[in-house]
Design goal:
By secondary structure, the protein is α/β, with parallel strands linked by helices. It has five helices and eleven strands, in the order E-H-E-H-E-E-E-E-H-E-H-E-E-E-E-H. Helix 3 crosses helix 5.
Amino acid sequence: MKNVTPKECPALLAAGYAYLDVRTVEEFEAGHPAGAYNVPVMTRGPMGMQPNPAFAKVVAAQFPKTAKLVVGCQSGMRSLRACEELAAAGFTDVANMECGFGGARDPYGNVTPGWQACGLPTESGKPAGRTYAEIQAAAKAR
């Protein structure tokens, strides 16, 4: 696994990487990198955020384990967890996007800009074939 900055991502995407957004469905629909796929690594439950037990299985149904994936979240924490889980599941080329979609704060409170603040292409809503509901349904059909 490697770490990349938002500014490094467009070159990776142009080189054949897919962007995997591991935020919640609601966060994804509110705005995400253009072309991103959504498979949440954590889901909201009655006790707050909980690990998605189907995460690696659903990702594996969408992408082969040799797929080149840039993994992002809101600030870089969930995506790091997701990359570790994907690597443990046998994915061989995953890159954690540090700072995520919204940016991250260092221990001194300084903000490092994320995807959106870097002015990179975004979209919102439910893109056909890239929503968690569709990806999850396809995984169950296999």
